[in-house]
Amino acid sequence: MPIVTVQVTREGTTPDRSSVSAEEKAAIIKGVSQVLLDVLNKPLESTYVVIEEVDLDNWGWGGLPTVQYRKQRAAAAKS
Amino acid sequence: MPIVTVQVTREGTTPDRSSVSAEEKAAIIKGVSQVLLDVLNKPLESTYVVIEEVDLDNWGWGGLPTVQYRKQRAAAAKS
Amino acid sequence: MPIVTVQVTREGTTPDRSSVSAEEKAAIIKGVSQVLLDVLNKPLESTYVVIEEVDLDNWGWGGLPTVQYRKQRAAAAKS
Amino acid sequence: MPIVTVQVTREGTTPDRSSVSAEEKAAIIKGVSQVLLDVLNKPLESTYVVIEEVDLDNWGWGGLPTVQYRKQRAAAAKS
Amino acid sequence: MPIVTVQVTREGTTPDRSSVSAEEKAAIIKGVSQVLLDVLNKPLESTYVVIEEVDLDNWGWGGLPTVQYRKQRAAAAKS
Amino acid sequence: MPIVTVQVTREGTTPDRSSVSAEEKAAIIKGVSQVLLDVLNKPLESTYVVIEEVDLDNWGWGGLPTVQYRKQRAAAAKS
């Protein structure tokens, strides 16, 4: 009876969207539940999946808020 | 000094409400803190309780988003 | 389908024990599951409870490891 | 940069083992990271996966420790 | 590659604000990432920080929702 | 009343040690509690810090267990 928690930033996969879509969430739920079935033989109905979307301001990486860190990395990649 | 995290779907207990009410949250906080006092003798003032309400789209069960899984189970129960 | 996570320090409730006993864990599981049934009408079989025991060294309070913080408070209480 | 936390009971998939094997852990890590790549286009190197094995005594279901709940269900299935 | 999760109540540090500001979040991210670098020599770019703001209703302390517990303590401090 | 959870791999900072030392844990607890005091004015005694050490096998990065991913990166850096 696994519990899988998936934390992602709240942003879209295309420029016109600002969050993960319902279809994408369903695909994540299906995919990770299947992994637990395939690897550990856990029946689908015993797995809970919780998706947590985290605002970009609330996610830090490299000692910076994500947006600033991405800019820094993009600038470094160019130089 | 326990920490109790309670994750529930964001939905009401009656059809006219779409989330857990403030009274219900207070009752959960009171109840689980009391369990820790009764069983482990932890003083109420040393217990933190955090309630996380999770959107139905973000909670998966049976490899599906919750709403779809419930429909599937309800259909199976009828047949 | 709630998930309740209970984090407590790994220590006994009596001097001769160094961890939470199996009976105490069962009582915690029973108690918090019952709270979710009573308050939100969640069936017992849809609630998962996960108990995490945390070594005393790994739990901080008051900016100190727990054991040191307790000593500090006990000393302050005497003075 | 997702974080995926997988909580499972500490037990083997065959009677001769008492925990998840290193190969199974590697397969879980590979599988869930791939789901995030496929669905949200997250590069593998930005995904962290944390597997938490939970002792059977510390996992509750149906208001009971897991082992007792499984026995109860098995008995109910027979009757 | 540490993951640091910071859970705080959703409220401002001054009366005119009702949540943690973007500047405060950036300072938390910078500060805790630096601690991991200083103490464990973890490079900044390997540390993820996730800040979770919890509504006051959803945080319990002393067996009560936070706002009620604070009132109770303030009243006790006066008497 | 913040809760700070610090997840790190269970390994030493020098070759002769296989886990985080008690002194390092105390420094982490002190450091992150101080950040919350400095930035959000949270009193030290209201902050809980929980350190979770995760076995290397149980931490995935780049779709691989950590040790394999580090080897892959080290090999790539040389070429």
UniProtKB/TrEMBL annotation, chains A, B, C, D, E, F:
GO molecular function ontology, one term from the record: isomerase activity
Q: Which InterPro entries match?
A: 4-OT-like_dom (IPR004370), Tautomerase/MIF_sf (IPR014347)
Which keywords fit this entry according to its UniProt record?
Isomerase
Q: Which domain of life is it from?
A: Bacteria
One Pfam match, by short name? Tautomerase
Similarity remark: Belongs to the 4-oxalocrotonate tautomerase family.
* Name of the molecule in the record: 4-oxalocrotonate tautomerase family protein
Species this chain originates from = Rhizobium grahamii
